Amino acid sequence: xxxxADAAVVMNAGAIRRAxxxxxxxxxxxxxxTGRVILxxxxxxxxxxxxxxAAAIEEFEGVIVERGAIDIxxxxxxLSLRGVRPAxxxxxxxxxxxxxxxxxVDDVLFTxxxxxxxxxxxxxxxxxxxxxxxxxxxxxxxxxxxxxxYVGKNLPTRxxxxxxxxxxxxxxRDEVLVAGGAWEGGR
Amino acid sequence: xxxxxxxxxxxxxxxxxxVDAMLDVLIRExxxxxxxxxxxxxxxxxxxxxxxxxxxxxVDLHTHVREPGQEYKETVASGMAAAAxxxxxxxxxxxxxxxxMDGPPVVAQVQEAARxxxxxxxxxxxxxxGRAGERLAELAELRDAGVVxxxxxxxAIASGTLARRAFEYASDLxxxxxxxxxxxxxxxxxxxxxxxxxxRLGLRGQGALAEVSIxxxxxxxxxxxxxRLHICHISARESCEAxxxxxxxxxxxxxxxxxxxxxxxDAAVAGPNGAAAAASPGGLRYDTNAKVNPPLxxxxxxxxxxxxxxxxxxxAVATDHAxxxxxxxxxxxxxxxxxxxxxxxAWGVLGALIAWGExxxxxxxxxxxxxxxxxxxxxxxxxxxxxxxxxxxxxVAVLDPSSRWTVEPERFASKGKNTPLAGMDLVGSVVATVSxxxxxxxxxxx
Amino acid sequence: MVARTVRTDDRPAExxxxxxxxxxWGHRHLLDVDVLAREDIVAVLDTAEAMEEVLQRRVARxxxxxxxxxxxxxxxxxxxxxxxxxxxxxxxxxxxINMTGSGSSVEKGESLIDTVATIRAIGxxxxxxxxxxxxxxYLAAQHSDAHVVNAGDGLHxxxxxxxxxxxxxxxxxxxxxxxxxxxxxxxxxxxxxxxNVWALTTLGMxxxxxxxxxxxxxxxxxxxxxxGRDLSLPRVRLEEDLxxxxxxxxxxxxxxxxxxxxxxxxxxxLREFSRRYQITPERMARARxxxxxxHPGPMNEGVEIAADVAHxxxxxxxxxxxxxxxxxxxxxxxxxxxxxxAT
Lengths: 187, 446, 343
Prior knowledge:
The structure holds 3 protein chains of 3 kinds.
Chain A: E1 8-11, H1 13-30, E2 37-42, H2 46-61, E3 66-70, E4 101-109, H3 113-122, E5 130-138, E6 150-154, E7 162-166, H4 168-171, E8 175-179
Parallel strand pairs in A: 2-3, 2-4, 4-5, 5-6
Antiparallel strand pairs in A: 1-8, 7-8
Chain B: E1 5-8, E2 11-14, E3 19-22, E4 24-28, E5 31-36, E6 46-48, E7 53-56, E8 58-63, H1 76-85, E9 88-93, H2 104-114, E10 120-125, H3 139-145, E11 149-150, H4 160-173, E12 177-179, H5 184-187, E13 192-193, H6 196-201, E14 205-206, H7 209-225, E15 229-231, H8 237-248, E16 253-257, H9 259-263, H10 274-277, H11 299-311, E17 316-317, H12 326-329, H13 346-355, H14 361-368, H15 370-375, E18 396-406, E19 425-435, E20 438-442
Chain C: H1 38-56, E1 69-74, H2 80-91, E2 95-100, H3 112-122, E3 126-131, H4 136-142, E4 147-153, H5 159-173, E5 180-184, H6 191-202, E6 206-210, E7 237-239, H7 242-246, E8 251-254, H8 270-277, H9 281-284, E9 292-294, H10 307-310, H11 317-336
Parallel strand pairs in C: 1-2, 1-3, 3-4, 5-6, 5-8, 6-7, 8-9
Helix pairs in contact in C: 1-5, 1-11, 2-11, 5-6, 5-11
C-alpha cells in the first residue's frame, strides 16, 4: 500500500497499543464472564486486531478469550461496484455461535456496510446473544444505522479523505494515516 | 455471332495437347476452330488475355448439384453458376439425389435442367437401386441414358459380394465405378479423422483404415473383374500407396483428390491458430465447415496426397462440391452435415499450392483438365474434352495464377456457403470462363 | 511434466491492482481446463476452500450471487452433477432453473443455438450445460453472451469434475507438484480423464494412464506437428500393466466402465477387465502408504473398484461429491465477478 506525500500520521504505534489496551479493558468490564465472548476479526486487518485484543485480555485477566476471523466477501452488497475483489478466504469460526457474545473487530468504521455484511455472515452460524463492534478508528459518514461499542479513536474526516490503518502483522508497521482529497490507490 | 470468340494474347497451357506457348484460340460455333500465334483480323468478338493463362475449361469429376430433391441446398442452375465462377465448364453430377439417380428418368431430369446453362453437366449413375447397396441399378440403361460413370457416392458398396458383381457387370459396359471408400464398420460413425486432434476435441474419429480397407478390397475386385475403378476423394497415405502399387501392376484404376485434402489438416476442425483463436471461446472452434467425408487428415496424409498427385498416382483434382445450408452446419459438430462447397475455391487452393512450390503450374492445370477427362475417357463422350485442340469444345478458363483474394462465401454463386476457407487468403483467380464460345463468367460475360 | 505454453486467449487484458491485490479470474466461460493457467486453477481451489467453509455453516447461504440466474441445461441424464450445480447456485443466492432435453422444445427439434438464445433472452446469466456431443458448449458460448459452464460434453471435457478432483487431491496430499497419480480403465471414452490430464499436469502431477489398448485414445504423446497448431494433450505415462503403474503412486483414480463397451469389442468381458484393472486392496498395497483413491462416480463396485477399496480408509469418493459443490460454487462465483458492472 502506498500513501501520498501529504498523508498525515494520526496514530502512531504507541497510540494504537494504548487504544487496543483500553478496548480490551472495556470488553472485560462489560462482560465479566469472558468465556462467553468471542472476538471475531474482519479480514484483513480486523483479524490481527482481534488477536491482539485476545492477548491483551489474557495478559490483564489471565483468561483465554476465543477468537475467530470472518471473510465478508460473499456477503457484501457492493459486489458489482468493485472491479476486482480480493480473493476469498475461509472464515474461521466455531460451528455454533448460539448464546455467545460476538465482538466484531475491524480497523476502520466508515459507511457501515462491511459490518452489515459481517452480521449477515454471522447469522449463518446460529444465534448469538449479542453482537458488538470494536473498531480502531471511527471516521464517521455512516450509510446504515450502525454504531461501534468500542472505539479506539474518533477521527473527523471529509468523505473524500482516505484513512489507512497499517498493522505490523500485515503491513510491517503500526500507524494510522489520513490523506485529504481524492487520490487513487486506496483500500 | 453466338459461339464465336477470339481469345487473344494469353499464354496457352493445354497439357492434354502438350502445349505451353503464347497462342491465340479462335472458337467458331462453340468449338475450337484454330489455335495459333497472332490470329488477328478475324470476324469474332475478342477476349483479351494478355498477361493471363489460357487453359481448357476445368472438368470436375465430383459435384453434388443436389437436384432433384434438395434444391434448397443447390440446384443444377446454381451449381452451374458456381462451376462457371470456378473455371469449371464440365461437372459430373453425383447420383445421391432424392430420388437417387438410379434410372434414366432422373438422368433426363438433370440433363434437361442443365440445357443451355453455363456448364456441361454429365451424370453419374447410381450403382445400386436407391443407393441402398442391396440390388444393382439398371446399369446398361443408365449408360444408354448418357451417364459417364457409376457411383454410390456418399457410401461405399459395403457388401463385398455386391461390389464384386458390380465390377463384373460394369466391366461389360466399359464405364468406371467411382467408389467412395469408407468401410462403415471401421469408420464407427466417426465425425473427423482419428488422431491427436479428435482426441483433443473429444470427437469420435474415423481412422484412415476405414478408407484403406475398401481401397484395397476394390483394387482386388476390379482387377479380378477386369473392370475400371475410380477412387473418389482419396485422403490417406496408405490408399495412395495401394493405388500406386496397383497401377504399377496394370490395374485399371484412377483416383481423384479434393483441393481441401491437399491444403488442410484435421487441425482445421479446431479452428484458427494464434491470435485468431481468441475469437473462439475456449480457443477451440469445432468448425463444422471443416467436417467433410472423408475427413481432413493429419499432415502426413496431406503430404502423401500431394506427393501422389505430383507422381501421377492421383489423376485428377475433383472438388467433391457438397453445398449445404447454414442450418445443416450451424449446429453441434456430431449433427452437422458432411461436406464443403468447393467449386469456387478450387483454383485458388491450387494457386496457393503453386505459389508455395508444392505443385507446378502446368501440372495443376493438367489435373483439372486432361487428367480427369482421360481418367473417365470423357473424350469418347465429348470429343476433345479437357483440351484445346481444333475440334475441342470451346470451353476455356482464363486464369491469373498469382492474384491474391480473400474467400468470402457470402459472394459465392453456389447456395452452399459452407467452407472452412472463409476469410482465408488464396492465390490465383479465374478471370473469365468461356463455355462453348460464350463468356459465362468474368469480363464480358453475357 | 512437460512445460506447456498456456494460452490465455480468452482472457481480457486486466492489470493487477497497484497494491498487489489479485487480479480478476478473467475467464468468461469454463469450457475446459486446457486454457487455465496454474494460477487460474489455484484461484478456483483457494476460492473453493472458502466455499467449503460456507457449506459447514449451520445456515449455508450467502447473497453473493443474488440477482444472478443460473440455467442448468442438461441434454444428458445426470443426477449428481446437476444437483451439485443447483445446490452451488442456491447456496450463493442465485436463482437456479433446470431444463432437460426431454419434455422441452429441445425434443421438438429446436436447435441448440435457438435454445441458448431463448434462455439468454429469459435472463440467464450462466448456462451450465451438459451435452452428448463434444464441443456443444463451445457452440453455445459462440452464440450467447451468457457465461457458459461445461458440465460434460460428449467424450471431450468435464472441467468442474477435474477441478473438484484436484481440490480433493490437494486437500489430501498438499502441494501436488511432483506427486504421481494413476488413472485407470476406459480412458478413451472418458471426458473426466481428459480434463484431469489437463488439470493435474498443469498442477505439476505426473499422470499415468492405464488401460487396455482398446480403451486408450489415439494420438497420446505424439510428436508435435512440423507446422501448424499443436493440439496434443499434455504428455502422460502410458502403462498396460496396473501392478507396475500403481507402484509408489500417491493417488489412483478409477473411471467408470460402461457396460456397453463389451458390444464394441473393446473388452472381452467384465470378468477379464476386473481381473486386470480392478483396484483391489492388494494392488493398493503397492501404492504409497495412505495413497488416495478417487472415482468420479457412479461406481461399478466389483468391476473397476473393489468394494473394500471404494469404502475403505483411503477412499475419497464421498468427499469428492461434497467438494463438488464447493468447487462449483467457486466457479460460479469467479465467472460472475463483475456481473452487472458497467463494463
